[in-house]
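Batch job 17 of 40 flagged for manual review because the log was empty.
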Amino acid sequence: MVQCLKAFGWSAAAVGWSVVAASMWLGIGGGAQAAPVTTMIAEDSFSYTAGVSLPGQTGGAGWSGAWVSDSVSFTDFRTSASSLVVPGVTSAGGSMVFVSAGTQINDAARNLPLQDSGVVFIQFLSRFGTQSGAGTPSIRLVSSGARTGAIGNNGGCGSAVYAVMNAGLATIAASCSSVGLNTLSAVVVRIDYAANVTRMWVLPSLVGFDYLNPPAPSAEYAGLAPAFDRISIYSRSPATLDELRVFRVANAAPADTQAVPALSPWALMALTGFLLMAVWRLRRWSSVT
């Protein structure tokens, strides 16, 4: 077909464009990229009656049971009707908050299916105080009863900033962000079990955040990919946490994807004839005018 078009005096560029146009007309061009698909593993927006103890609450989805007290030595977190609001995150109302009712530390925990393969995201909204230490504040990851890692701080980094911590609640230089714990933030944690690395983004907004192609992280801990089947939360006053989610993100296959059948030789000849006739008529019209 290309040689025939050239024989009628078409330039190489015109031939190229005609082939592209024919391909698009026949539907054999490339398909559009489908939007990513999020698979929720567990989530809780803390939409509970205000002012009650968090342990015993069963809201959200995907968990293996209700919230429980993680340690008998400390006071339980309570619920609040107020929500944390960060652009790009839909809030369903309510949050978990520190309550001064006996001890200087609050705690709560909840179990979920074991996460130990592929890439898993943990996301939450939070705002803590200006101090860190005594194991707080920390969103701890636990597997089979053993702590494997955490998000928060424990007196490391030289200042009270959001950080990625190992099983001993210790940080390294690269795992410290520059965002203070007392800054209202959306925290996105990406655990890559194959690459054995945990990356974290601490942001004032998640508008436009690309989970599959994220920007440079706020902090990362190479050599750490904590498996977990339990999330335990510890903090001193003040502390508010909201919109806790565990999920996976993957590229989706285009909807209704169908293979385009190859053109038969007769169909190619018919298409060639159609194009040649169009060229002949165009050249004849040009010569008349």
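Reviewer: the log was empty due to a logging misconfiguration, but the result itself is present. The domain at 37-250 is CATH 2.60.120.200 (Jelly Rolls). Unflagging and moving on to job 18.
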